[in-house]
């Protein structure tokens, strides 16, 4: 009998199938020394490797296959360059600077990315979203400096007249500010602000690359970025709407640009310039007919519709004298050649130091995402850190040459891809096309109406604005993503672009935290006679194990959802240990009182010292198995929750076992002494599978019952 009792006391152990490897980590000091030694080692191969890493063109250009690549690169480069010219001029309306600076930006960005980029297909240059964000900063600072935002470019026109007629006309009472030891007018001050923001954005991007901070982009979720881009596109549409109607309305400063601008447009609708309105209607009807989409199977290359519209509109404006006869706003004089390089206005940077942060992050995020997307499509790899360096220097170096912030652009990248682009030689060809315009053809765009440029910008927003049609599908696929998209879009459009980005990031992170605070929980049942266990609510024909509750929590367990975890567990198993223990103590007290009264009535003298066995309610289960397969990690609060569960349920006679823990989770539990001193209880608390935990629980319960029966006998 004693031998049987001894056998029952120790249920047979379940054999350990897995054994952890002993990892020997090198001391941090030795690792640091080896890295420093490797970093400072100087040799010819290392110098060559460093230079080729910094300038990837040194790796692929010597291997350039002329016969296979040159035709596609030349064609795609020419087509993108032809598309780039009118867009570069048009986006200067958004940036609040003269058209020549858009051409400078496109020229330098293409050359620098050709040297430093790792993507073969990305087109880097002027981008509508970056231009809008630059323009908001420029208009704000120009307004603060005392310039009139509604005034037309009178100074530029007078200069052109002086150059043409050889006379010296002057404009009185022209407001100027002193900058870097010289008097600066409105246009000079505007480009100085744009250059200062661009320089800072580039510095931020290079610093992010040096300190390996590319992970920042992971917080920009795809729904948030889509919503932000759509909201910004709606803002761009609003800002450009006044040019379609020929209204001279200054850009609103502050929050609520979309609402205030539309209110001003409708308030001044009676001042519409019919010439601009008719021109806009004609241009949009031509640009939006999507001839290319209709005949794309027959066309060997995309039609440069924008350039055709610009050329036709420029000729019509010049020979029809639309500016002088009908008061239509035109681009004005665009000089040829290059301006001498100039240092950015360092005195202005303190005013825009914060404005450059969202520019840097968004520019990098769009560039890297496009690079990785086309790299996957064509089967090669890109280096995100090098991409950050490349786009950073695409901003720093051109800022010395009167350029503003650049980024990768989806539309032009898709054109490059569809026209046979093979390498970044196509960017060099695009830069040569822009160079020809800068050297010879720029003055021909003087008579180009601003409403035509606005039409080009608005039509280019079709892709982003079509995202509104995808909202129902987003809602059906994921309500959380759809809500993030709507919040980011609404905040960007109704408040401001910068705050819209911040609101989108914060809200998407809050949504993630909310999902981890209220994750799906479930009780598991067994699949027939197999060793598999699944959700009882989700699957049919499952059998709950006898007197064992298996609980699954599908989220990391940390300080923010610890209480949710405990409440969900108590609700699922139907027993909260604190209340159960309280009931037991009350029952014990009642039993003691009843025993004392009975003893007194019988005349027994025990002074109330009566041995009363603890009254315990028979529970439906004796063990809780926590399926940790969906818990990636826990923090100290989660560890404390596990320790508390084991202790509290042990007080009411219920065991708590863990199953399917990953190695990171096990390490945290070991460090927190969850398995006792020297992990002595690990074999009885931790199991590799749910089934192993259930088998152990039933054996332990059977042993306990056998021991209890023997003691009663």
Q: Number of domains in the coordinates?
A: 2
Number of strands: 11
Helix content: 55-70%
Largest sheet data: 7 strands, mixed
Q: What shape does the CA trace take?
A: elongated
Mean pLDDT: 84
* CA gyration radius, whole angstroms: 36 Å
The end-to-end span amounts to 11 Å
Flag low-confidence runs.
1-10, 153-166, 607-615
Structural class: mainly alpha
The number of helical runs is 31
Strand composition percent: 5-15%
Membrane topology: Multi-pass membrane protein
Keywords: Cell membrane, Glycoprotein, Membrane, Phosphoprotein, Transmembrane, Transmembrane helix, Transport
Protein name: Sulfate transporter
Catalytic activity: oxalate(out) + 2 chloride(in) = oxalate(in) + 2 chloride(out); iodide(in) + chloride(out) = iodide(out) + chloride(in); bromide(in) + chloride(out) = bromide(out) + chloride(in); sulfate(out) + 2 chloride(in) = sulfate(in) + 2 chloride(out)
């Amino acid at each position: 009998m004693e031998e049987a009792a001894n056998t029952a006391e120790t249920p047979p152990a379940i054999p350990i199938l897995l054994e952890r490897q002993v990892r020997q980590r090198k001391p941090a000091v030795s690792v640091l020394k080896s890295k420093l030694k490797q970093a400072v080692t100087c040799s010819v191969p290392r110098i060559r490797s460093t230079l080729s890493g910094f300038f990837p063109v040194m790796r692929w250009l010597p291997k350039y296959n002329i016969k296979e690549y040159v035709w596609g690169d030349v064609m795609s480069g020419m087509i993108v360059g032809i598309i780039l010219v009118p867009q570069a001029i048009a986006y200067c309306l958004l940036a609040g600077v003269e058209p020549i600076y858009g051409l400078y930006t496109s020229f330098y960005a293409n050359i620098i990315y050709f040297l430093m980029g790792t993507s073969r297909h990305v087109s880097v240059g002027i981008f509508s979203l970056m231009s809008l964000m630059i323009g908001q900063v420029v208009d704000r600072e120009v307004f603060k400096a005392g310039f009139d935002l509604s005034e037309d470019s009178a100074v530029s026109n007078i200069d052109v007249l002086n150059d043409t007629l050889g006379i010296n006309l002057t404009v009185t009472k022209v407001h100027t500010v002193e900058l870097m030891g010289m008097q600066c007018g409105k246009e000079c001050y505007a480009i100085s602000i744009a250059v200062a923001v661009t320089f800072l954005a580039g510095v931020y991007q290079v610093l992010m690359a040096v300190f390996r901070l590319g992970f920042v982009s992971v917080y920009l979720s795809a729904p948030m970025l889509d919503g932000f881009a759509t909201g910004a596109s709606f803002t761009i549409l609003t800002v450009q709407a006044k040019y379609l109607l020929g209204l001279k309305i200054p850009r609103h400063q502050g929050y609520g640009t979309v609402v205030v601008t539309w209110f001003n447009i409708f308030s001044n609708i009676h001042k519409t310039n019919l010439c601009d309105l008719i021109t806009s209607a004609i241009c949009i009807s031509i640009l939006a007919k999507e001839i290319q989409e209709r005949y794309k199977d027959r066309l060997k290359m995309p039609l440069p519709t924008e350039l055709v519209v610009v050329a036709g509109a420029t000729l019509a404006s010049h020979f029809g004298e639309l500016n002088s006869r009908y008061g239509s706003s035109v681009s004005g004089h665009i000089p040829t050649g290059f301006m001498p390089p100039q240092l950015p206005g360092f005195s202005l940077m303190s005013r825009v130091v914060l404005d450059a942060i969202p520019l840097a992050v968004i520019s990098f995020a769009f560039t890297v995402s496009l690079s990785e997307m086309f790299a996957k499509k064509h089967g090669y790899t890109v280096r995100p850190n090098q991409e950050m360096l490349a786009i950073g220097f695409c901003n720093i170096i051109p800022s010395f040459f009167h350029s503003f912030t650049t980024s990768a652009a989806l539309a032009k990248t898709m054109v490059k891809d569809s026209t046979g682009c093979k390498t970044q030689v196509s960017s060099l060809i695009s830069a040569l096309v822009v160079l020809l315009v800068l050297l010879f053809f720029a003055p021909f765009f003087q008579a180009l109406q601003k409403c035509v440029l606005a039409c080009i910008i608005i039509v280019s927003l079709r892709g982003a604005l079509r995202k509104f049609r995808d909202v129902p599908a987003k809602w059906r696929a994921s309500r959380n993503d759809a809500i993030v998209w709507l919040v980011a879009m609404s905040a960007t459009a109704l408040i401001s672009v910068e705050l819209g980005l911040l609101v989108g990031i914060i809200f998407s992170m809050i949504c993630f935290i909310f999902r981890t605070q209220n994750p799906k929980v479930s009780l598991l049942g067994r699949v027939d006679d197999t060793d598999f266990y699944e959700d009882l609510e989700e699957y049919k024909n499952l059998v709950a194990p006898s007197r064992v509750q298996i609980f699954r929590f599908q989220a990391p367990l940390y300080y923010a959802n610890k209480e949710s975890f405990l409440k969900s567990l108590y609700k699922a198993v139907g027993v909260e240990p604190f209340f159960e223990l309280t009931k037991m103590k009350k029952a014990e007290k009642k039993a003691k009182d009843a025993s004392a009264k009975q003893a007194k009535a019988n005349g027994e003298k025990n002074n109330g010292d009566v041995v009363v066995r603890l009254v315990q309610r028979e529970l439906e289960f004796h063990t809780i198995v926590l399926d940790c397969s969906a818990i990636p990690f826990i923090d100290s609060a989660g560890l404390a929750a596990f320790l508390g569960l084991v202790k509290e349920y042990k007080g009411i006679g219920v065991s708590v076992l863990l199953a399917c823990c990953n190695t990171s989770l096990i390490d945290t539990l070991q460090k927190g002494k969850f398995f006792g001193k020297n992990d002595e209880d690990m074999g009885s608390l931790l199991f590799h599978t749910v089934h192993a935990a259930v088998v152990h629980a039933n054996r332990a319960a059977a042993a306990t019952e056998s021991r209890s029966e023997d003691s009663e006998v």
